[in-house]
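Continuing the batch. This is chain 6 of the set; chains 1 through 5 are on the previous pages. Same settings as before, nothing changed between runs. Recording input and output for traceability.
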Amino acid sequence: MKNPRTHGMDKDEEEMNTNADAHDAINNHDVWTETENSNTKRWQTPQYTGSEGVEIRRSKAAVVCLVLLCVLLLTEVIILCVHIHANNINYMEDQLLITDTNLTDERDQLITNKTNLTEDRNGVQTNETKLAEERDRLLNNNTNLGEERDGLLTNETNLAKDRDGLLINNTNLGKYREVLLTNDTNLAEEKDGLLTNDTKLTKDKDGLLINNTNLGQDREGLLTNDTNLAEEKDGLLTNDTNLTKDRDGLLINNTNLGEDREGLLTNDTNLAEEKDGLLTNYTNLAEERETLLTNITNLTEERDQLLTNNTNLIKERDQLVTKNMQLTKEKDVLLANNRDLIKQRDQLNYEKRELLNMDGWLYYRSHFYYISSQKKNWYDSRRYCTDRRADLIIINNRDEHNFFKKMSCGAHAWIGLTDRHAEGRWKWVDGSNPGFRSWAVTEPNSIGGNEDCAVTHSLGWADFPCHRAFQWICERNSLR
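Output for chain 6:
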């Protein structure tokens, strides 16, 4: 911007230079005329009186000054238009840079969101893989525990069968021991009876020997009865032989009974030892059974705990799967939104390039605006906007109002506000009620009852007849 005072001084200097140039031109003209009169005789310079020459020179100077002033004014107008155009171009460039920066930030944000979603998806897939592996491991452990449990149950069944067999064998051995004890008692009684008989036989033998001795003495004394005694002797010898044989048989039987008794005692000792061993084995088996029952109880509790943990892990896995599905759906929605944003961005860039190629369109806060240089009525103005996929402007706040007032340089311009359908009920062209109002003083007044359309100017809004011709402002949403 130029300083107004400096500009005024420059203008005065130019006017002084113009007057000096005009004066020099008049002087040069006079010199030329005098020279020509002196050097050439063929040319006839009109002769004027003194007052007429002054008037002619003044009129020529006035014409020259007027022409120069017109040139200066035209130059000032051109400079002013170039300055305004340059300001508009700079403003448009700043707005395009801001829009480009915003779009770049949005693109970077979308790329960051996409990267975060990809990392979250990879993390969820990793967790899902780990949970699947842990689930398989737990299933294998569960299967192994089930097999171990089945093996323990089989072992327990076999041990119970072995225990029942040992109890039966123990019972049978007890009965057999009682039978052996009874037989041993009977044998002892028989042995005592045999010993008693042996004692009696020994006494009888001693008595027979004594008798034999007495008989020998009697034989010597009783020679007369030799035949009878010989016969009796033979009988006695026969009886003695038989008794000797019986004695030897009894001795053999006694020896056999002693051996049988020793065998029975040995068997009884062995049976007692076997009984003690069986009792020890039974005690050990009972202890092992209690240990197995304890282990089975612990394994059952561990199995129940593992089943509970497995159930909890299955629930957690199902929750993670559900969460993964939800995240996948959210990712798909975000990707769809990202694609839509990319399409909108491309559409925005396309429309921006398209509108920037159109003269007079400005970009402001995601909208494009056009201020006309022509004048039309409200209907034709709106038709002009709608033919370009736009509409008459809708002003929503004070900032927009100030921007459009600056944009239109305070000139009267149609806006998209009307009460054509219901008098006094002003609505924007999109059917919404005006939340922000900036009516000028005494407006709207509807003079004549037919002022149904609104314009904006330096003092605010005003209602005018819709057939009046004014400039107009179009507004186009960059995302539409």
